[in-house]
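User: structure tokens for this one?
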Amino acid sequence: MSKRIASLVPSLTELVVALGLGPRLVARTGFCIHPDDIVRDVPKVGGTKAVNLDTLRRLAPTHVLVNVDENRHDIVPALHGMGAQVIVTHPCDPEDNLALVDQLARVFDDEPGVPERAQALREALRHELGETRGDGRGPCRVLYLIWHKPWMTVARDTYLSRMLARIAWHTEPALEGGPHGAARYPVVHGDEAWLAEVERVLLSSEPFGFGDRHVALAQALCPQARVQRVDGELLSWYGPRAVPGLRYLRELAMS
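Assistant:
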């Protein structure tokens, strides 16, 4: 039976296409926008947190790709009920991209070109991972903001925090959020003592659209810090985006 893939995660949609499986995509979320020339005609089934299960069911996927952080856990039984194979992903470190590629390559290894494309992607990832290390750099205390009203940041056991840690940028607060749930994205109230020690505030380009006025607000939050906007896709998307993402990370370290 021909494989029909539904990807409910933007990073995974991009990975599916990178492996040459774009023609097998039958469903995506509204946030799955890359690469545009491939995915623009693929039907949308809502958002990562609000999947329209009725629409998805009509598209009859044989495989559904989900992520522990980005999708609701309670949809998994419904996905199984459609008769689909549910592929659960949870990369928490840039190194996990290698296992992620392996995971999808094993599922789709009978599709033409997938083993070769997976190997090329592994090699590119290994190279960039090897080039992106914090050796010789002094540690930097960073506040990475993903939301406003309330301010929200990332715990140290998230993919994004561990990405920054490769260049010795350590996110504050020094908390781990556990395997899943809201604790992975702590709220910052503005009266925390450690805010005075933050050296850089990074305003992500997603999921919140920070504007000029937020730069000033973030500066007031951390008066001693340098505030800058950064590309959230390059820093937080796993899969093939991690290749240019790691290069971008090295550029940030030099800025």
